[in-house]
Amino acid sequence: MRFKLKMIPPTATAQQKGERVVGGYIHHYKKKNVAAAEAILRDALLPYVPEAPIADRPIYFGAIWEFPYPKSAKKHQPGKFRQKFTRPDTDNLNKLLKDVMTDMGFWKDDALISVEFIEKVYSDEPGILILITDLKPDFDELAWEEDLNDKGEAIY
């Protein structure tokens, strides 16, 4: 399954939880910006929810977060993208996305995700490109040796 959520990606993350002390106990709550980000993601993901969640096999999950170029960006070539290396962190962005996708029934549990790819870029067409595929459970079938030269060094 591959699709793109055409939107300006939310920057709130699952890590941005609030805390307050009531009666000597710490209570955690969801901040308004996180709840709003969840709602935006839910609305965008709704057309892509599968009929049944993946429940019994390992998953490859990829997400490319395409943010709009900042106004301060110098000239860029249309159609090209540039790596984004400012906040928020990729792992925090993906945590919120995976939590929402789990709640919506893309998979039974996000622990099924065995391989994950995350990238943040600036783009003329903002959005989140998502790829979900099955993994072969037997990694011996993969030809890792083909990516090595005759000295056993990785070839990129």
CATH class: Alpha Beta
Number of strands: 7
Overall number of domains: 1
Which range does the strand content fall in?
Answer: 25-35%
Description of the molecule:
The protein has 156 residues and is of the alpha+beta class. It has one domain (2-147): Holliday junction resolvase RusA (60s Ribosomal Protein L30, Chain: A, 2-Layer Sandwich). The protein is 19% helix and 30% strand. The protein contains 2 helices and 7 strands. The protein has helices spanning 32-45, 90-104; strands at residues 2-5, 17-22, 25-30, 59-68, 82-83, 113-123, 127-134. A 5-stranded mixed beta sheet has the order 1-7-4-6-5, covered by helices on one side. A two-stranded antiparallel ribbon has the order 2-3. α1 (32-45) crosses α2. The protein is globular and about 65 Å long. It starts with a strand and ends in a 22-residue tail after the last strand. The relative contact order is 0.26. The mean pLDDT is 82.
